[in-house]
């Protein structure tokens, strides 16, 4: 079953954020855009390149009112140790959510049960707590924060303009489409 347009299921997790441990729940998401960025494990290879890419673009996401939650099944203590020991991970300013109980990973249907780690899943959640974008990548394929940023802008645009849709490769400021019978077969 698709998670698109469904509400984030209840959870409570601890995150490492700005030198502190904080609690995050599904209620923390209400009223803002959020990204859940699942990755397999701390102290690995592809994961730090992705998290570093998000960190490099974090200010752009913040300008759009988006909070990023990186999520793995590691503990919050492991997140802190990785943050303290890696130059790349040390620049993260967004919360690193710990999911050692696998509740969050199961809620988003990304848990690889036999390995106890999460798939590379990206979920964009709107201010109502509903999932608007779902993306899954194989474990050996990294994601691109700039493409994610483009998708968030599109999701925000269509939320603000419900009678319009964003075509392929749409960039902020470009023309959108107003679905109608007149367009059928004309594009």
TrEMBL record:
It catalyses: a hydroperoxide + NADH + H(+) = an alcohol + NAD(+) + H2O. PROSITE patterns: THIOREDOXIN_2. Coiled coil: none annotated. GO terms for molecular function: NADH-dependent peroxiredoxin activity; thioredoxin peroxidase activity. Its EC number is 1.11.1.26. InterPro entries: AhpC, AhpC/TSA, Peroxiredoxin, Peroxiredoxin_AhpC-typ, Peroxiredoxin_C, Thioredoxin-like_sf, Thioredoxin_domain. CDD domains: PRX_Typ2cys. It is found in: Cytoplasm. It comes from the Bacteria. One of its GO terms (cellular component) is cytosol. Pfam families: 1-cysPrx_C, AhpC-TSA. One of its GO terms (biological process) is hydrogen peroxide catabolic process. NCBIfam families: AhpC. Thiol-specific peroxidase that catalyzes the reduction of hydrogen peroxide and organic hydroperoxides to water and alcohols, respectively. Plays a role in cell protection against oxidative stress by detoxifying peroxides. Belongs to the peroxiredoxin family. AhpC/Prx1 subfamily. This is Alkyl hydroperoxide reductase C.
């Amino acid at each position: 079953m698709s998670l698109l347009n469904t509400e984030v299921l209840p959870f409570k997790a601890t995150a490492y954020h700005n030198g502190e441990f904080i609690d995050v729940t599904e209620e923390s998401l209400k009223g803002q855009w959020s990204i859940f960025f699942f990755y397999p494990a701390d102290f690995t290879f592809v994961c730090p390149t992705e998290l570093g890419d998000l960190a490099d673009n974090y200010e752009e996401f913040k300008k759009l009112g988006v909070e990023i939650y990186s999520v793995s099944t590691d503990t919050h203590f492991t997140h802190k140790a990785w943050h303290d020991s890696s130059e790349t991970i040390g620049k993260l300013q967004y919360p690193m959510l710990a999911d050692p109980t696998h509740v969050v990973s199961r809620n988003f249907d990304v848990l690889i049960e036999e390995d106890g780690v999460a798939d590379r899943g990206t979920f964009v959640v709107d201010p109502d707590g509903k999932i608007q974008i779902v993306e899954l990548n194989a474990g050996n394929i990294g994601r691109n924060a700039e493409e994610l940023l483009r998708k968030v802008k599109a999701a925000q645009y269509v939320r603000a303009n419900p009678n319009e849709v964003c075509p392929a490769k749409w960039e902020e400021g470009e023309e959108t489409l107003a679905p109608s019978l007149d367009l059928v077969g004309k594009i």
